[in-house]
Amino acid sequence: MNYVTSSRLPTEWGEFNLHVFIEKQTQKEHLVIAMGDLTTPEPVLLRLHSECLTGDALFSLRCDCGPQLKKALQRIAAEGRGAVLYLRQEGRGIGLINKIRAYHLQDEGADTVEANNQLGFDADERDYELVRPMLDFFTIDSIRLMTNNPRKVKALENMGYNVVERIEHRIQPNPYNQYYLHTKALKLGHLLQNGTDGLPDSTDD
After folding, report:
1. In angstroms, rounded to a whole number, what is the distance separating the alpha carbons of residues 87 and 57?
2. Which residues are within 8 A (CB) of 8 and not within 5 positions of it... i.e. 6 or more apart?
3. Residue 162 — φ and ψ, nearest 5°?
4. N or C, which end of the chain has less CB nearby within 10 Å?
5. pLDDT tens for residues 77-136?
6. CA distance linking residue 158 with residue 129, whole number of Å
7. Which residues form the active site (predicted)?
């Protein structure tokens, strides 16, 4: 992973800095959307956000990705320091075309895990090792992680980073994503509290 360039990114919540990295093997571009000085020793408010074209750009209601991205940027702006690592791992790592194929299977009754499995993929194909050079570029060591996904916490800790706090990052469900969120909690271990999100018997990101 190589650093390429940076620029200002003014948003409705404040001005961020956009830093571009390129993955050597795949030539995919990954982004760090940052605010404030990340190189100081204080733990950094951070989110690992995997690309979701349908949710982030097309406003799909069948997932929680777009609202989670917006919420992360708002939280960082409110504190004045933090970063979103925007990772080009569409569809939990299976790519856009296969994600739409999975959507078709979901339209026919499969849940998100079953759809991925029917296409020959694991439920989650993402590799978080690619964030290491991005974090090391800013000398980030201690992290306050915005996530409902314990796998992200474990991945960072396994790489030697100190996750000093996990900040729940739940959003209000809608009629189109309730089953999706329920599946994430039930089959992927995402941390949703029973009854607080309108999910049936749930035990999210």
Report:
1. 15
2. 15, 16, 17, 18
3. -95, 105
4. N
5. 999 999 999 999 999 899 999 999 999 998 998 888 898 899 999 888 999 999 999 999
6. 10
7. 124 (proton acceptor), 126 (nucleophile)
Tokens of 32: 């760090």
Residue ranges at the known binding site for GTP: 47-51, 68, 90-92, 112, 147, 152
Give yes or no: 124 in active site: yes
Q: What is 154-179 written as a DSSP string? A: HHHHHTT-EEEEEE-------TTTHH
Candidates 124, 197, 204, 205; catalytic one: 124
What is the full DSSP assignment across 58-109?
A: S--SSSSHHHHHHHHHHHHHHHT-EEEEEE--HHHHT-HHHHHHHHHHHHTT
Catalytic residue check, 75: no
pTM of this prediction?
0.87
